[in-house]
Each structure stands twice: as C-alpha cells, then as structure tokens.
Amino acid sequence: MTNDGRGSGAGSIIRGFPSTMGDDHPLNVPSLMRHAARTFGEQEIVYRRSGAGFDRCTYRQCYERICRGAQALRSIGVGPGDRVGVLDWNGRRYFELYCAIPAIGAVLLQLNLRLNPEELGFILAHSGASVLCVDESLLPLAEALAPGAPGVKAWVVMSDRAPEEIVSSLRPSHHYEQLLAAATADFEWPLIDERSAYAAAYTSGTTGRPKGVYYSHRSAYLHALSASLGLGLSLEDTMLMLTPMYHAQGWGLPQTGPLCAAKLVLPGRYSTEDIGFIVDTMIAEEVTVASCVPSLLLAMLAHIERMPQKPDFGRLRLLCGGAQPPLAAMLRFEELTGGVVMQAYGATETSPLVAINRAKPSLRKRLSADARLALRTAQGLPSTGVDIKILDAEDRELPHDGKSVGEICVRGPWCTTSYHELPAGEARFIGGYWRSGDVGCIDPHGYIKLTDRLKDVIKSGGEWISSIDMENALVAHPAVAEAVVVGIPHPKWDERPLALVVLKAGAVTSDEALREHLLGQFAKWQLPDQIRFVERIAKTSVGKLDKKLVRAEYATLYSA
C-alpha cells in the first residue's frame, strides 16, 4: 500500500522522491561466494574427508567446483524453480551445493536428517522435489524414501569412491564427481529475481505435518549482512560450521562466512561422542567463530574439564541457541578457555537469527555486576533489521519494561509471512508478524528474555518434539485409553519427554511395545526417556490434561 506521505498507519509504505540507484539489481546469494573467490581467492577452506582426516582448498578452487556443479545440474535437467533435495552432512559438497543450486535459479531443499522417513517422504512430495543429492553414507535412507518419492526423477550420489565401487538401487543415478569432471568451469552467472526462493526448510515444531519455509535470495543476503554485524565477523576470523547445514540454513553461516571471506572449517559428520575431535579441530585451526546447541556446549565443557592443558580460545565467539544454556556452564567455559559464549534466538521461520546476546558498553558502568550477569541469561538484542513485539492474550502490545510477559512476535526482511501451501487456519501470523509461540518479555535496555512457551512443545538438544502428536500416537495403540506427554528438565538435553499412560480395562502392553508403536511416526531420539503406566492422569477443572501439574510432579525425575 502506498500513500501521499501525509500520514502512515501500521504497515503502510510511503513513496518518496525517486532514487537514481540500481535498485532493480537483485541481491543474489551466489554472488557472495563469487565475490569472495574473486577478491579473496587465496583464503582457505578446510574440510573433512570421508575418513578421519582433513583436506584443504582455497575459495578460488571451491568457486571453480561450484561453477562446474551448476553446469552439472543443468546437464541433468535442473532449471529455474526446480527443487533439489540434499541429504548430506556438513562437508565440502553440501557447501558447494548451497551455492551451485541457487546459482541456476533452482531451490536448495534442506532435508533434516533428524526427521523420520515418513516426515522426509512428506517433505519430498509436498515440495515437489525432482532431484535428490545424497551422500554415500546416507544411501540406505535415500533408498527407503525412493518408493514413496515418484516425483524424484534423478538421484545424485556424492562420494569420494569411483562409481563402479558404489552399490545402489536408486535409478536413474548419477555420480556427483563424474558430473563435475564432465562439466566446464566457464559458467555465466545469471541475475535471478531476488524474491525467488533460493532454499527451503521444513519445520514440524508444533502439531501436524512439517511446514515449508521458502527463503528468498533477498532474505538470505540481508540475513547474512545482519548476522555478520551481530557477530562482528571479519577477514581475520576462522569459522567452524558445527550447526547442521540441513537445519534452518545452518544458522546462516554458509552465507556469512563467504560474505566476510572468513576461513571456513567443515567438520563433516560428527556427534557429541566425537567431542574430542571437535575441540582438537578448534585448537588446531584456531577457530574464532562457531555455533552450537546447549548439549554440545556441555559436552565441550566436560571434555575441556578433563584436559590437562586447557585450550586458549581467547578470540572465540561461541554462538549458542536452540534452547537456553545453563549460565554456570557458560561462565565455566569462559573461565577455562577465555572464549565468549553468546546466546542467540531464532527459528526456521526467521532464517533463523533475530537476536544475539551482546554486552552493551553503555551498561558496563550503569549496572551492577549481578545485574550484568543476569543479562547473560537473556536471549539477546534484536538483530538490525528485525522488529520484535510482545502481545498479551488479547493481542494488545505490551511495554518493554522487563516485567510484562506475552507472546514474542517477529517481522523483518528475513522472516516468513506464510508457509508453503499450508491449509487455511494453521498459520500463525498477525499484521505481518510471525507468532513464535514463545512467551517472554523485553527489558528497557532492549534484551529479549524467554520465560515459557505457549505450546507444550518439547525442546530437546535444540530440536522440537510435539507432545500432542505423541499423545495422539499413543492413544492410537489398541491397549491405551489415555496418555500425556510432557517435557521434563534434563541436565544434558535441556528437556526430554516423559509419557504417562493409562491402559484400557483388561488390556496389557509393555514399554517396549509402545516404543515400537511410536517408531512408526517418530525418530528414535524423539521417544520418551521413560514411559510410566499410571491409573489416572490429573485433569484441570474443565477436563483437560493438567500438564502443568504433571511437569511439577516429575520435575526432578531426569536430573535425579
């Protein structure tokens, strides 16, 4: 909507005097890597091989492979608007595809490896993916998905091994390295409408099917600019990409790294059991920027506690999000290493970063030491370019006084305003703002502090588990009359599910049988740590399951 400039209401846009700038020149994600390769081509990228060791290349060499990759995708029929799924870890090829796929106007479909096959199959069908690139280690998963993915017309296998050494039932199948070898690096980069989708991610944070968020070139470009500002990134940094690249744009690091031409470290496949390898890599490569969830922070801290000589992470900014890390763990990590742990806040719907906890110099003298310490538990200051407000139960905006608590609502150039082909009535938006479902407050200094969640969603290790979906699945078992699932505090994973089950009269089942039943709809890591059989479940005065009472009763179950 436009007006004549005499006044503007909420959401209106004033059209002023025309500029003479190239405002029609689109912001394209691949141009970040192209600039980095042309200007800082000698900068290093360190990536883990299929085995245990690392190899190295330069931005210039990586850029050449990206150009070949774009040509290779074209050679198998990928064109503008096509959705190309990727099943891979944080390795060299995934990083290349982050640029090669959108470079030809196609859409990078990030497939979250923590989702179960049924959910992944739904995402492939719902997105209309026509090509799927898969790491050799994930071929069994791809082969399980293939029968339910008739829309996938080509499979690209990514491996260091020769094609004849790979056994797969996928048809038609191509070999990534073979395609690159046959392609040329002479690639003319097209200008793509910046409002076109460059990538897509699906979230199933609450109830129902996964919801599609399609990131535009413009949104990702602007998110990278703001995130690099918030993190204080520069050419002098070394960035370790710990956050999965299949989850919420890898927190935007695949763009912010090239934007600042930072040295990149790609760790490949790893788990918390490999934490010694991760810490050793941080020391050897002199990492200054990394991202993690609280469970990974705790694993790092436990490992460092056991090290006879503590690492010097004096330049490290460790971004921690997905859930609130324990303050004691943050302070102990900083005491032992000299690094800084910075909380961050966001979601798949927000690209994801909308707040980073940075210390404001203006508060160092004005606040007491205890008050400054309390600010460390906040999720942070809003990112440049993002608007955040809190609404009460009647959708009235609340003051930023640090006391008024309501639902956090977010809008901005990298925040979604809709979901892809979502049935009417399921979306949560108000006046251009995305309703996060998180409850919190904003203090007079601008810091956002989460206090609760509207939904009874369980956050475990930075990932969400729907309690309602799990309850419905349990009640679908023929022996179950009633079930409630709640998140219980856990010292390692922030929260883990607990299920209370009431059996039908005369029915018999077991913990193992119910777990087997749930595996049809949930990944193994999502299953409750405990399933307890009870005679009744507490209800509220209106007959609803009293989850608040259940959580209070079992609050110390897992910590004990």
What does this structure look like?
The protein is α/β, with parallel strands linked by helices and 560 residues long. Among the domains are: 30-269, 3-Layer(aba) Sandwich (Rossmann fold), CATH 3.40.50; 458-553, ANL, C-terminal domain (GMP Synthetase, Chain A, domain 3). It is 27% helix and 24% strand. It contains 15 helices and 28 strands. The strands form six sheets. The chain has a nine-stranded mixed β-sheet with strand order 4-3-13-12-14-15-16-17-18. Strands 9-8-7-5-6-10-11 form a seven-stranded mixed β-sheet, sandwiched between helices. Strands 19, 20, 21, 22 and 23 form a five-stranded antiparallel β-sheet that branches. Helix 10 packs across helix 11 (327-337). The radius of gyration is 24 Å and the shape is globular. The chain starts with a strand and ends in a 7-residue tail after the last helix.
TL;DR of this structure?
This protein has 560 residues and is α/β, with parallel strands linked by helices. Among the domains are: 30-269, 3-Layer(aba) Sandwich (Rossmann fold); 458-553, 2-Layer Sandwich (GMP Synthetase, Chain A, domain 3). It is globular and about 70 Å long.
- State the distance separating the first and last CA atoms: 57 Å
Structural class: alpha/beta
Q: How big is the Rg?
A: 24 Å
Estimate the global geometry from the Cα principal axes. globular
Q: Report the β-strand fraction as a percent range.
A: 15-25%
Instruction: State the CATH class of the domain at 30-269.
Output: Alpha Beta
